[in-house]
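To assess whether the prediction recovers the assembly geometry, we first specified each molecular entity separately, as shown.
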Amino acid sequence: MPPGVINIVNGFGPEAGKPLASSPRIGKIAFTGETTTGRLIMQYASENIIPVTLELGGKSPNIFFESVAAKNDEFLNKAIEGFVMFALNQGEVCTCPSRALIQESIYDQFMDMALDRVAAIKMGSPLDTSTMMGAQASNDQFEKICNYLDIGRAEGAEVLAGGKPARVDEFPDGYYIEPTVFLGNNKMRVFQEEIFGPVVSVTTFKDEDEAMEIANDTLYGLGSGVWSRDVHQVHQFAGGIEAGRVWVNCYHLYPAHASFGGYKQSGIGRETHKMMLDHYRHTKNILTSYDKNAMGFF
Amino acid sequence: MYARVDVTDEACRVIDQLREAHGPLMFHQSGGCCDGSSPMCFQDGEFRVGASDVLIGEIHGCRFYISRGQFEHWQDTHLTIDVTPGRGASFSLEIPLGVRFVTKSRLFTEEEKQDLVPVSSCSS
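The predicted structure of the complete assembly is given in tokenized form:
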């Protein structure tokens, strides 16, 4: 990168973010965060008529069709791990598969295995290489997650695992949260809001139509996962999901050149793909005539 | 009538401090990533509210808004605006003080549900 291309300006929103976002010297803004600030950034950008791209989070569905449990093999093992990917979240994972949709016919078998795997998650020091999950990123995040654990219970969601702060002897004041599995329905707040912690809300579906309805019944549309041994089913289903990323038989892979971004309130624009550069460029058409003669109109 | 949103004494003190520095204030409840689910405090009028927002009440003299889509899912919960030590990641005015407003929710009781303060559509 040539000198001067990347400049890092640290500061708080009102004193750094706002002047940057509303400066006439700025040609384009990208913002990753939440919806209110996303709207505010758009508002500032509108003052100078410059483009904006936004990534504002999600409430990503992770959908498991019955064929995943047709055999007890390495693929079923992979799908169970795919479910547990919700625990890869210390308050900084926008694409967290925080809603798990499991086909009714395999629910008992699938959840037995999944809950065993959740119970095996080891929390502890981030410097210990056997630690699987560390503390949450901040105190405000920790409190927010705890509040959602209360809301989930109050709304009638059943706690299948976790549900409270975790005590890690080495760090008694650490912001640890037990990996938490709620069972409930998609109308509950814990199914509709980004908790931004190691919390998944599980529900069941009867058929593809119901799975699609639940998957898309959200304000957001960033990530999603579809798991099935039926290649036709995954292909067709992935096409109907209103989300910028559909992981098929995998989750949380981020290879370069796989476009990333959201539908609906998850934002505008795509990143990590070459098309991202178009957000930062103008298209110019230089139209040259090689004819010396007038057009003949006037 | 029961309020949909209330505020703790500690949060009121922070609001007073901010009001002294910035003048009249407003709140907008956020959703989504990062600082999502947190209330955002701005100078009154700094954030443009519109037809897609709902005014659900006032806390310590500041109007409190939420987007209509989010309100659909939040309408059965009472909100208490509190403050906690922390470093948020948004444009909310209290962040430089080393504290963060937080929204604490609980479900309304059946009695409260029968007699809630009506919400109104926004005029900015």
